[in-house]
Amino acid sequence: MLPAVPRPLVQKLSARYIAGPELKDAREAVRHINAEGKLATIDVLGEEITNEDEAAAIVRAYQDVFADIEHCGLDANVSVKLTALGLNLDYDVCRMNLGVVVDDAASRGNFVRIDMEDSSTTDATLRLYRELRQEGRDNVGVVLQAMLRRTDDDIAALADLKPSVRLCKGIYVEPPELAYQDFDEVRDAYVRALEALLGAGSYVGIATHDEWLLDEGRRLVAERGLSRDEYEFQMLLGVRPQLGDQLVREGHRLRVYVPFGRHWRLQENPKIAGYIAADTFGRFIGRHNGA
According to the model, what pLDDT value does residue 239 have? Predict the structure, then answer.
């Protein structure tokens, strides 16, 4: 329904979830996040990529981000969507672009998280990740979605790499044969995946705003006696910040996802779209209930 909402209203509602249109907006958001004792991941938002020049522009944008992180002394890394680097245009083009971003990060002592998109990209995403790691590029991690039925097998297949993994529930609409649909099934799959990853010695970004899963995450890292630099929790900018503050007070590392960009569409950013939709619905209901 969101595409029917006037764009100015969408932009207003998105303000709490997106740092702003420019790199300087992300910079200031990260400075504030760092001052609160939290880490950050910066994501460059963009429209759907239709040619190689547009993908190259995204690469340059990430190089600017790394330069800014280094110059300003920010505690942040980046997250990239492979479709923004040309995955749907040509696999080799995407691989080349991703290699440029990862190598630029390495030259500055930084890290790249390869985001996971819908299930049509999963095989290519994991293939690219493995190829980079086998080439000796160790400053790169990946994302796995607990809701996908294949994730248990993917964790087993990646075990030899001891990957750095951002584990999330998953936000894309997938058919029942590919993804769990029941809320409790997704929760159970998340805990199972987290147990498997930690058991395999992976560094895990426990990415959730679900209080039950946060408790399970706390329990599992405590049972394994992990120190605070052996895992982290992750949340989205503007979403349940009080929970994030609590995690920091408890001594956990927390990383906040900070997207920015001038030209973007909700269709390419379902995580953000979901929270804008909830915000829109909440305001509508509140207004009609006299709140």
Answer: 92
Provide the sign of the torsion angle of the four alpha carbons 129, 235, 265, 111, taken in this order: negative
CA distance to 26, 34, 114, 223, per residue, from 101 (Å): 18, 23, 11, 37
CA dist 133 and 113 (Å) reads: 13
Record the tokens describing residue 151, joined without a space.
């994730």
Write down the catalytic residue from 27, 113, 166, 255. Answer: 166
219 noted as active-site residue = no
Q: Which residue in the list 43, 95, 113, 115 is annotated as catalytic?
A: 115
Known catalytic residue at 224: no
Is a pLDDT exceeding 60 seen at residue 3? no
**Burial per residue of 224-242, b for 16 or more beta-carbon CB atoms within 10 angstroms, e otherwise:** eeeeeeebbbbbbbbbbbe
User: What is the per-residue pLDDT across 34-69, written as a single tens digit (0 to 9) for each?
Assistant: 999 999 999 999 778 999 999 999 999 999 999 999
Q: Cα–Cα distance between 276 and 253 in angstroms, integer?
A: 26
Report d(CA 217, CA 33) in Å as an integer.
22
